[in-house]
């Protein structure tokens, strides 16, 4: 019958040593993981809005076992990771089966064989060998990606090659042990060695050699394999890159299910009165989830390679933000050794300048396979810099003052807020309310569309669309103030809270069913930020409404627009709020308009460079994010159309429109930029 002797060729003393080493290894691993857990629990407690139920566990298991977060973005890297992970999983399961067979059924119950015999044993040998081969293949691909293909985001530190090489040696020595056993027992096997393809290959290389020599080599390599395996397992909690094997799955399970990019409300006045800290100043301010993020990072660099600030050459890497926190954590709260002195985060491992370059686009969050959130940490560091240390770019001063004094970052007088509407019959909300009525849509124009001469065309186009479709709407006029989004993302939480409270109080006086915005930043504030201030609204972006109006045949688009267009996904419309299809559905209905996608689109679209307050930030000419994005748009259009066809970038955000136009001006091209509302207004039938 097909079977094999477990611990063949190992003496009784060797068996005793094996169990001793296994016990020591298990003790070291448990102690190390316990110390890691203790470090994470030193963070501020986290309250999860959803209970930790089976559904969350099931989702986490599926995510981890499918490698969905890796495969969806990077096919080669994801396939490599899948091979390594499943190779280890199957080999660990196989080792566990062998241990149960030997320790329980053989040693305790006294059965010669229970599971590992007959067809089950043959299937066991075949499956474990195949997955062992896949493990070796995955490790070889990992080394090739790093050192032959030279992926720019991959580092080249010692641990970056030691770890995969160690694992590769462990896997290969495992096959060598099997091959030597098969060769030494060739005449006594009760089955074809081909059921163990990896071992059979090596057995064929040494077949015919002296059996005594094969047995001696088997013992030597068996001990090498055991010592390396136990050593790698024991080191797991103490090598950050290896620790992600445990921590990443836990981090995925504890995913923050609240809206991405959301910031917690702060009691700013109370904190000042109590002389408390705001934002993140030291490691003591980080939450338990933040510290779990730090421990879980595998240093893959996907956040860095997708960060628009980093791509444009600025001194910001989301990976280095997380790894800087890890270095500080290892110094101040080490797994082993003496704790270090507490330091201010931006004086320790992270550059204060770097946190100001973040556009809050959330590309780092979207691209992380371990669901780590560098953005939340950057924003909390920025809050501390702005409110506690009064440090922020000089150009922000006038923006914040204008928002505080006049209710808009352009520092324009409120009486000029309706200048954009001259020549249009636009109902004012106060007048509608005075007549005892309400509206279906409160059209929140936003500061950019009200005061920026170029962007006023978006508001005017939207009015034409609303009136053509017969929508019952009104605007606030001079009562409208900035939502405060830019102030909050700049780190000035107090000013944001003042704006939010004033707006919520003012909006409570009027009757409306929905708030309609043309600015994704306003959309995001109303839908995600304002509920913490008592403002619960049904918020609609203009692309959503226009798309619905076309589907309901309340808008007729008959005028052809002969052009090749590429759509730029606004970060706050797309990644932050998952609105990707509505604008594309609209463009598909415009007669004559041809569209082509940029290489980076939808979830992986690249920022215009204006988010997080950076519309008012003076960038170096060779580090402008919008220039990179315009270049991507131009490449897409030029590839898909002839030089004679007019080309354009279509946007759905006033800030994106401004940034794209600045980039186009610097490029000196015939390509133009238009908001999607402008195109629809142009295509509306004049009948």
UniProtKB/TrEMBL annotation:
4Fe-4S ferredoxin-type domain sequence ranges: 288-317, 346-377
Keywords, ordered alphabetically: 4Fe-4S, Iron, Iron-sulfur, Membrane, Metal-binding, Oxidoreductase, Transmembrane, Transmembrane helix
GO cellular component, one term: plasma membrane
Pfam families, A to Z: CCG, Fer4_9
InterPro entries in the record: 4Fe4S_Fe-S-bd (IPR017896), 4Fe4S_Fe_S_CS (IPR017900), Cys_rich_dom (IPR004017), HdrC_iron-sulfur_subunit (IPR051460), Helical_ferredxn (IPR009051), NarG-like_sf (IPR036197)
Top-rank lineage group of the source organism: Bacteria
Gene Ontology MF annotations: 4 iron, 4 sulfur cluster binding; metal ion binding; oxidoreductase activity
Transmembrane segments: 16-34, 82-100, 120-144, 165-184, 190-209, 221-239
Signal peptide: none
Stored PANTHER family: IRON-SULFUR-BINDING OXIDOREDUCTASE FADF-RELATED, IRON-SULFUR-BINDING OXIDOREDUCTASE FADF-RELATED-RELATED
Protein name listed in UniProt: Fe-S oxidoreductase
Organism annotation: Desulforhopalus singaporensis
């Amino acid at each position: 019958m097909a079977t094999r002797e477990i611990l063949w060729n190992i003496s009784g003393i060797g068996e005793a040593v094996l169990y001793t080493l296994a016990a020591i290894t298990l003790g070291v691993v448990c102690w190390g993981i316990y110390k890691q857990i203790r470090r994470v629990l030193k963070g501020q407690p986290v309250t999860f809005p959803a209970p930790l139920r089976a559904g969350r566990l099931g989702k986490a298991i599926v995510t981890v076992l499918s490698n969905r977060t890796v495969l969806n973005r990077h096919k080669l890297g994801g396939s490599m990771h899948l091979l390594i992970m499943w190779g280890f999983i199957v080999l660990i399961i196989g080792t566990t089966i062998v241990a149960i067979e030997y320790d329980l059924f053989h040693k305790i119950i006294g059965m010669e064989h229970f599971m590992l015999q007959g067809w089950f044993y043959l299937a066991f040998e075949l499956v474990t060998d195949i997955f062992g081969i896949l493990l070796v293949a995955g490790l070889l691909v990992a080394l090739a990606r790093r050192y032959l293909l030279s992926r720019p985001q991959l580092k080249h530190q010692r641990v970056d090659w030691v770890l995969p090489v160690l694992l590769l040696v462990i896997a290969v020595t495992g096959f060598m042990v099997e091959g030597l056993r098969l060769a030494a027992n060739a005449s006594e096997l009760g089955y074809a060695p081909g059921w163990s393809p990896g071992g059979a290959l090596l057995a064929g290389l040494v077949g015919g050699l002296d059996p005594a020599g094969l047995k001696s080599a088997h013992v030597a390599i068996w001990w090498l394999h055991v010592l390396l395996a136990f050593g790698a397992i024991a080191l797991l909690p103490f090598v950050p890159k290896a620790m992600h094997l445990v921590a990443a799955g836990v981090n995925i399970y504890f995913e923050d299910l609240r809206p991405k990019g959301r910031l917690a409300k702060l009691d700013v006045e109370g904190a000042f009165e109590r002389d408390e800290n705001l934002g993140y100043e030291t490691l003591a301010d980080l939450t338990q989830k933040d510290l779990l993020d730090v421990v879980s990072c595998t240093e893959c660099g996907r956040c860095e390679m997708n960060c628009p600030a980093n791509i444009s050459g600025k001194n910001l890497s989301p990976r280095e933000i997380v790894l800087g926190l890890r270095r500080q954590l290892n110094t101040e709260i080490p797994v082993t050794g003496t704790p270090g002195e507490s330091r201010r985060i931006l004086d320790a491992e992270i550059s204060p300048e770097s946190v100001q370059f973040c556009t809050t686009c959330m590309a780092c969050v979207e691209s992380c396979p371990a669901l780590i959130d560098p953005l939340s940490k950057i924003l909390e560091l920025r809050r501390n810099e702005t409110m506690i240390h009064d440090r922020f770019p000089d150009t922000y001063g006038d923006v914040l003052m204008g928002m505080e004094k006049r209710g808009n970052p352009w520092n324009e007088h409120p009486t000029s807020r309706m200048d954009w509407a001259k020549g249009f019959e636009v109902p004012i909300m106060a007048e509608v309310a005075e007549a005892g009525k309400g509206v279906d849509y409160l059209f929140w124009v936003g500061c950019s569309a009200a005061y920026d001469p170029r962007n006023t065309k978006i508001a005017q186009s939207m009015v034409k669309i609303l009136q053509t479709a017969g929508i019952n709407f009104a605007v606030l006029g001079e009562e409208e103030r900035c939502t405060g989004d830019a102030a909050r993302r700049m780190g000035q939480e107090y000013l944001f809270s003042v704006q939010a409270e004033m707006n919520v109080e003012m909006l409570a006086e009027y009757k409306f069913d929905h708030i309609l915005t043309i600015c994704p930043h306003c959309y995001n504030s109303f839908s995600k930020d304002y509920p913490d201030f008592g403002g619960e609204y049904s918020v609609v972006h203009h692309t959503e409404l226009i798309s619905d109006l076309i589907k309901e045949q309340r808008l007729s688009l008959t005028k052809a627009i002969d052009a090749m267009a590429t759509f730029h996904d606004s970060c706050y419309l797309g990644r932050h709020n998952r609105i990707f299809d509505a604008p594309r559905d609209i463009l598909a209905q415009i007669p004559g308009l041809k569209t082509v996608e940029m290489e980076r689109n939808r979830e992986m679209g690249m920022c215009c460079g204006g988010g997080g307050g950076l519309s008012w930030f003076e960038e170096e000419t060779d580090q402008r994010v919008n220039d990179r994005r315009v270049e991507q748009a131009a490449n897409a259009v030029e590839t898909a159309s002839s030089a004679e066809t007019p080309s354009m970038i279509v946007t759905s955000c006033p800030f994106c429109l401004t940034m794209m136009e600045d980039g186009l001006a610097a490029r000196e091209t015939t390509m133009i930029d238009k908001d999607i509302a402008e195109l629809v207004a142009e295509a509306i039938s004049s009948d």
